[in-house]
Design brief:
With 381 residues, the chain is of the alpha/beta class. 37% of the residues lie in helices and 13% in strands. The chain has 14 helices and eleven strands. Helix 2 (21-34) runs antiparallel to helix 9 (249-258), helix 3 packs parallel to helix 9 (249-258) and helix 4 (65-78) crosses helix 8.
């Protein structure tokens, strides 16, 4: 939503895609010429690329990130790994889609506070949230920061929990501190299964909606494959009451052009984050925690300020467009007030009141990042 007066727009997706444009157009043209518009080679190639990238055996292309989250959980239910009413531990400060996917499957989201510094699940609180109905943890690598440590590994083993990941924001991030449960150190492949989103603003964005599930479990992979296709693996043989959630090959073909550059794209964001980290020096502005033991792919660069409206107005007056991820936590949304509205989650609420996302995509040059940092340094309350 940028207008002419904005010198530093939050993001320009056309510019982000420009280096890939010609190859994407060619790849999509090849699909047009192939005559195969559902499934087929373009989809399978992308799925293999994604599985290899995540060091996992299976990837299944889907319509979007929410469907990936929903089908991953539904597959576990169909296989008897989870049942209705089972409790899923999930960070309280996440995009509402994470919680919706749990609700849509008649599972119970158990919202746990984040750590005020990492903005990810406070893993020291997992043990307090466990009940006899707890069967799973849904991790969210919020803003691209890896959410993985020994507490998670220990809790999963001790309580026999399934670990799922909402990896919509952290494709290409690595767990550096503790090994994943199945060998891979890549986010999205740390637990039994992970959901990916290729929504256009994500670190690897599609030309429209797209998503995927990555998993180490052969049966879960089969079940997701069936569920995306009316519950069917063979035509007119419906194992499950499934859905139509297939990733279009024309979108998969374009994604296959970009996916090999995931590390490059993440490094572009890291460069910008490094500049902000170095150059923003302002007692009124808390910078995001960066520590050597937690890989970060900077889906968003999120600072915290006490007076958010004043800060955003100040930046906009200086031509800097910002965003807020997210102003209202899921338990305060109208659709969840009846179910979750009584929860006391002061850390989550404080985060939602104070966060501001700065421009971080490749469409903002390094020179502009430095200029934005300088503008931020002149802000005071
Ligand atoms: C983007 C996002 C989703 C949803 O993905 P869509 O592809 O938009 O459906 C889910 N969870 C998180 C954390 C996200 O950032």
């Amino acid at each position: 939503m940028s207008d002419k007066s904005v010198k530093y727009p939050f993001a320009r997706l056309g510019d982000v895609n420009a280096p890939y444009r010609d190859r994407m157009v060619q790849a999509m043209t090849d699909v047009v010429d192939s005559g195969q518009y559902i499934g087929g080679e373009a989809l399978e190639t992308f799925e293999q690329q994604l599985a290899d990238f995540c060091q996992a055996p299976y990837a299944i292309g889907l319509t979007n990130g929410l469907d990936a989250l929903r089908l991953m959980l539904r597959a576990a239910i169909e296989l008897g790994m989870l049942g209705p009413g089972d409790e899923v531990i999930v960070p309280a400060n996440t995009y509402v889609a994470t919680i919706l996917a749990i609700s849509h499957n008649d599972l119970k989201p158990v919202l746990v506070e984040p750590d005020i510094d990492t903005l990810n699940l406070d893993t020291r609180l997992i043990d307090h949230a466990i009940t006899p109905r707890t069967r799973a943890i849904m991790l969210v690598h919020l803003y691209g920061r890896t959410s993985w440590d020994q507490n998670i590994v220990d809790a999963a083993r001790r309580h026999n929990l399934l670990v799922f990941e909402d990896n919509a924001q952290a494709i290409g991030a690595c767990a550096l501190d503790a090994k994943g449960l199945y060998g891979s150190q890549m986010t999205g492949a740390l637990g039994i299964a992970g959901a990916f989103s290729f929504y256009p603003t994500k670190n690897i964005g599609a030309l429209g909606d797209a998503g995927a599930v990555v998993t180490h479990d052969a049966e879960l992979a089969q079940a997701v494959r069936a569920l995306r296709n009316y519950g069917s693996l063979r035509q007119y043989d419906n194992l499950y009451q499934g859905f139509n959630c297939r990733l279009d090959p024309v979108k998969a073909a374009a994604l296959s052009v970009k996916l090999p550059y995931a590390d490059y794209e993440n490094d572009q964001r890291r460069q910008r984050a490094d500049l902000y980290n170095q150059h923003i020096v302002n007692p009124f502005v808390s910078k995001p925690l960066w520590t050597a033991n937690a890989d970060h792919v900077w889906h968003q660069y999120v600072v915290r300020v006490n007076n958010r409206q004043q800060f955003r107005d100040f930046l906009l007056a200086h031509g800097v467009e910002t965003a807020v991820h997210y102003p209202t936590p899921p338990h305060r949304q109208p659709c969840y007030v009846a179910e979750l509205g009584d929860l006391h989650l002061p850390v989550t609420e404080k985060i939602c009141q104070t966060v501001v996302s700065l421009p971080i995509t490749r469409s903002t040059s390094l020179v502009d990042i430095q200029a934005i940092a300088n503008i931020i340094n002149t802000y005071h309350e």
